[in-house]
Every structure is written in C-alpha cells, then in structure tokens.
Write a structure and sequence with these properties.
Elements (H helix, E strand, L loop, with lengths): L2 H9 L23 E5 L7 H12 L4 E4 L26 H4 L7 H6 L8 E6 L13 E6 L10 H7 L6 H21 L4 E4 L2 H11 L4 E2 L19 E4 L8 H9 L6 E4 L5 H7 L4 E5 L3 H10 L2 E4 L7 H8 L4 E4 L4 H4 L10 E4 L4 H13 L6 H8 L4 H15 L11 E2 L2 E2 L3 H4 L12 E5 L6 H12 L4 E5 L4 H8 L3 E4 L16 H18 L4 E4 L2 H14 L3 E5 L10 H13 L3 E4 L2 H11 L6 E3 L7 H4 L6 H8 L6 E6 L8 H9 L4 E6 L7 H13 L6 E5 L4 H7 L2 E4 L9 H8 L4 E4 L15 E3 L4 H13 L1 H18 L2 H20 L1
Parallel strand pairs: 1-2, 1-3, 3-4, 4-5, 5-6, 7-8, 7-10, 8-9, 10-11, 11-12, 15-16, 15-18, 16-17, 18-19, 19-20, 20-21, 22-23, 22-25, 23-24, 25-26, 26-27
Antiparallel strand pairs: 13-14
Amino acid sequence: MSDEALAAAETAAFVPATQPRRLAPAVVTSHVPRVAIVHDWLVTYAGAERVLEQIIACFPDADLYSLVDFLDDRRFVRGKHATTSFIQRMPFARKRYRAYLPLMPLAIEQLDLSAYDLVISSSHAVAKGVLTGPDQIHISYVHSPIRYAWDLQHQYLEQSHLTRGLRSAFARLVLHYIRNWDIRTSNSVDHFISNSEFIARRIKKVYQRDAQVIFPPVDVDAFELSEKKDDFYLTASRLVPYKKIDLIVEAFSRMPDKKLVVIGDGPQMSVVRAKAGANVEVMGFQPFDVLHDHMRRAKAFVFAAEEDFGIAPVEAQACGTPVIAYGKGGALETVRDLSQSRPTGIFFHEQTPQAVNAAVAAFERESHRFSPRECRANAERFSASNFRDRFTAAVEAICPGATRRSAAGMVGGAPTLTDAARGAPAGAAAPATKILAIDQTGVLGGAELSLLEFARQKKESVDVVLFDDGPFRRALADAGVKVDVLDASRLRGMSKQGAPTLRSLTGVASLVRETVRRARNTDVIYANTQRAMVVGAIAGVIARRPVVWHLRDIVSAEHFGRMQRMTIKWFGRLTLDHVIANSAASAAAFVELAKVPLKRVDVVFNGISEAPFRKHDNTPQTVLRERLGLPGDAFIVGSFSRLAHWKGQHVLLEAALRDPQLHVALVGAPLFGEDAYEAALKAFVETHRMGSRVHFLGFRDDVAACMRAVDVIAHTSIAPEPFGRVIVEGMLAKRPVVAMRAGGVTEIIDDGMNGLLCEPDSADELSAAITRLRTDAQLRARLVDTGYDIARRRFGTRTYIDGVSRILAAHAKRRTG
C-alpha cells in the first residue's frame, strides 16, 4: 500500500455502505448528546482495552456497559464501573466467563441503552449486537468479527480439542447460531469503524458493509528512539501457537552466526526451548524496562504472526528498530517495505523457516536503507493522540455535537477539556499555524522547560521572543528554535506583589511595540507567563491577532498582589481569546477571579519528557552521589525548586531536624529577589548543627541525575501549587514522592497509590511520611512502580504538545476564518 493511499485511508471521511439502507439521523440538538460505550468484557488490560481507554478519553462523560466487569485496576476506564449483564452473576464467571459464549448474544441484548442518543461499541465478540432504536446512532469500532465463529473456526476447534465427538457437534452448532446472529445484528449498526484495512476487508466479506479505517492507539511515547544498534535480532510475544515464535526460533537455529533474543512466556515455552540453538537466548517473561532496552538495541524485530493489526511491530519502530514481518494482515499497513521510498522493514510471504532465513539475508544486504528516525516517524502515525483526533472527527461527522463537552463543563468539580484540547475535527488539512511565543525570562524554570519542549517539537512554525537573556535563550537556540531577546531592563524589579512604576509602564510600551511588529507575520500570539500575557494581550489588540495565555499559576492573594490580580481579571475578560491552564486548580482560580465562561479555559497538563531520566538507568547511584559530593551510604531526601518561602524548604529542614538519620539535598537557587530566604535556610542549618546532613547544591542543569542520586523526593510548597512539575519528574526518575496536599498536586498524586500526601506547612506530618518511606522498602517500590506508570501515561510530552497545538490552531482559525 503506497504512502498516499495509506494517508487517504487514515483521514478519509466515512464511506456509506454500498447496500441500500436507511441513513442514521444526524443528531443536531441544543443539548449535548448522551453517549454510552459498550465493550465485550472487562477483565484485563490488553489491545482492545487500549482502544477503549482512548474512546473513554474522547467521551469522559459517557456511561460504560459490558457483559462482565471484573477489573481490579480501574485507571484505564477512569474509575468507571460498567453496567453489566446477568453473566456477571453466573457461577465461576470471574474466571470462566468465556464458557458462557452461548449465552452472550442473549446477554448483550438485555442491556438497556434506550436513554442514549449515541451508542459506541468496542467489539471483538458480541458488543456490536446491543439493541438500539431508530432515533439512536450506533457506531461500532470492530477489532474483528468474531474470529472463532468465522474464518478461524477450524483452528479454534482444533486448539480446544473439539474436532470430534458430541462436544464438537455442540460447539459447531453454537458457532453456527452465533454466525447467524452476528450477521443479523450487523444490520443494526449505523457505521462501522475497523482497526485496519485487513479487518475492513473481513467486515466487508462477513457483513457486506464498508468500514472506515482508524488504526488503534499505540503508546509510542513509552518507547525511546535509539540510533545505536547491537548485533542481535529480537522477537517478543506471548508464546502461543498462532504467534509462530517456534518458527522464528527454528529459522535462527539454522543461522548459527546470527543471535536471536526471545522475550515472552506461555504454553509453548517448552517447544520454543527445544528448538533453540546455542545462538538463541530465551529470556522468558521480562518487565517492560528489559523489553524496552532490547527493542532499542536490536538490529531488527522479527514478527511471524498474522495479526489483525499487530502492536509489537509499531513499538519496535518507535524505538527506531526495523521489522522483519510476515507479509499478511496488519503488518502490511504498519511496516513500509523495500518497495517504498522510506522503508522501515521487510516482508516474508510464507510462514516457514526457509522464508524467514531468506528475509534475514535480504535485510542484511539492504540494511543501509533503514533509518531509525524513519522508523520512529512511521510509528508516530499510530500514536494515541492521532487515534483520538481521527476517532472524534469520525464521530463528529456522523453525530454532530457529540464531541462537545457537557454544558456544565465540569467533571467532579474540575474544568474539562474542550473540543480543541480533545482533538475535535478541524476540517481539511491546513498549513501549520504560525505561532509567536513570548516569555518574560531567560531563566530555565518550569514554565520555560514546558515551552522549550513545545518549541523544540514545533520549531518550523514557532518564533520565540524573550524579555531577558539567559540559559533559556541558549537552550532554545541549541534546539534550533528561532529566538529573539528584547531589551526589557525597565521591567526588572517588578514582582507579582508590587505596583507598576512609570519606568516599568514605559518598558511595557516598548515591548508592545516590538511584539506588534513581529506579530503581524504570525497567526496567533502564545503568552507563556503573566508579564508576557500583558504585553501579548495589548499587542494582539493592535496587531489584530488572537492571544492565548498559558496560565501556570494559581491567581490568588498568596501568589499575586491586588493590582496584579485586577490586571489578570480585566485582561482575561476583555483581551484574551483563550486560556490554557496547567491544572484544574489553576483553571478554577482564574474562572473565579475573572468570571469568564468555562469554555474560555482548557486544562492541559504539562508534558515532561522521560528521556533525560532514562540516560541514567545504568549509572550506579554511588557514582552520581560522588559527582555531586553527596554521602554514598546516607538516606537522602531531595528538594528540587527555586529557594522561595512559599516553596517550603524550611518545612523540610524542620522535618529533618526530627530525624537524625536523614540527609537533605536542596537543589535550586533564589531567583526573584529571594536571597534573604536562602540566608535564613543556611542560618537554620548552622544554628541546629545540621551542616553535615544538609547539602546546598545550588542551581543545576542536570536535575535528572540529581533526582536519581537521592532516595526520596519531597515537594513542600506551603501554598497551593499550580501544577507540581517536580512531582512528575520524580516519578519518571523512579523515586517515591511525598508532597503537600493542595492545588494541582492532588491532580497528580493519589495518596498511597503513587505518592504520599501531607498537610501543607506541617513538619510533623512530613517527618512521619519520610520516616515511613525510609523504613518501608516495599512501600517505596510500590509507589515507584505505580508513579512511573502514571507519569508516562498521563503526562507524556506528545499529549501536551498535541493539546496546546490544537488549541492554538483552533483559535487562530476562529479569529481569521
């Protein structure tokens, strides 16, 4: 399939069925359509559940239905509990739910969905068979028509030892009944969406219906590109017959000069080990970190299964690793072979050892044609954000208004994402939005690190203007971002609490004039900080350009003076087109202050790259501590923030005073006239003779290494924190985190699950929490595992960049369209 055809398949609008049939009504109402999501069964987190997770992300207010719901970990369904069928209450249903296959068609039809305008089924078995009425729209995302009832029936019967006898006859009768039921219920589906062209063809053959193709989501952000490859091949899978791992092992055993690594476990383990030669290393089940490391270093990933889609080849390509795959099924759509201009793999066309041998030989002859970066770029087409974009666009085309947020705009009291942030359709492809990003400082703080990541990814369409020079400007330039520094010397000395002077107002006017001149060549002004917002808002009015402010503070009296709050209030009401808040806490404070509609604010959590932390995975902690001058055998709690009273480093020192075994590492420096606070901290240390236990490391640009050098990370802000970037960084550094229960922190940490929370400004509670962590290794390990998983899934850079990009593009079009 050519690149052009593949792109067309990914973005084309739904093609109506060729058979004459009724057209589903377009839901155009003044209210937001009620949405129900139906899934076959909820018992684990596998490929179909990854799709469900993203569908729920698109429709967070939807109600969930399923035949059974036995989930222990409910995070991927956002804590929802499904309405279930009578099978939920049947004997042994938790472990033997599949045995109730003959009852599943009846059970799915008993779910009452009559109250909903839109029903979305995620179906690989019977979910698409729910009953809907003539005024309802039913969209079915089909992972596959029931495989074991259609083309894989004979394979299913053989593997289940049901090829002859009375039980076989009964099984065949049941499957015949299910096939008839499956065809009949396909007529009640208004629109089919398939996970690949391969499944679309299967849908056409079975149901005689066309289907739009939207590839399933792959967590490509969890996999890191590596351009350095080692001399071995990799295959990884559950060891079951149809995966054909034994075939791959047999093929490599015939090539003793080529090393193969096998990762995975399953019922065929003994078969695989029996066929493995001396050059084949069978590692069995391995945790994600080990799999990820091998995927990044492998010369190529070998894949011999006929899959409907096939996630593993995409994950390999996300690591920059080309794929040697069986040329059938979903692999034909996820791997570019040598016939295309930018190949990412090579196919073999028979499931035989000889075919694998020939493909490996061809791969080695043509190895110079495979680029790790092209592999990564190809994998990014299958990201979760792309899935959400395409899925919401498809649903919106079928059911207008379905992707609007609820009229209240709130879920559990927190502002929700609007269409722009969730990826609502923006129509036909348009040129990249030209963005003028402005920031008040040259210092690398949290806001600047977030803008740096955004500008690095969007450098072809972003120009950055700073009001001061410093490390931030150098980091932008090193990343290839076009950056300019304006003279803002008259603004120096302004604070969030003080009133503006005549000198500072003159400085604002000068900055506005220069910003207007640059804004005339852009589509939207993106203000990254509060002072930048004032300049950008005025410049936007003069230049007639939309202005979006990225709010990274809680606008309260604890953080801002009265004059600054009034400035934010009136600029927010009168001149800003939109506000992006870094947490629901920040958004709620702004809405309360400015009294603006909720639709003018979106929440986009900061995106934080995992890459800096993974660089130190293989560096011993003792080595890192030696570099930093920290004691090698001490239990060290790290604080990572500028030294400021509201950041609460004094609370951490008071907590350490209660525990003589505790060491503290303070990473950070006073930035905005807060030198007196640093002096007070040092005086406290000297007074209490803690000099040997408290280590002032100052400003560091190697924060990831510093975090890996400590045992626990403390986030001690005594005032509500707008977001809490350090918390997410700590989780990515695989360190347990303890933080104060206020502001955006509570949107990151679930107490006892991925961190510990204390009351703000309580040295006693902080000391008790740290002691608990110091004395309980199992607790530390559990918090690290859960925290790392949540940080990667919720706060990845791709989700952040996509969210900000869509909002900027949407408001640029709104002003100019």
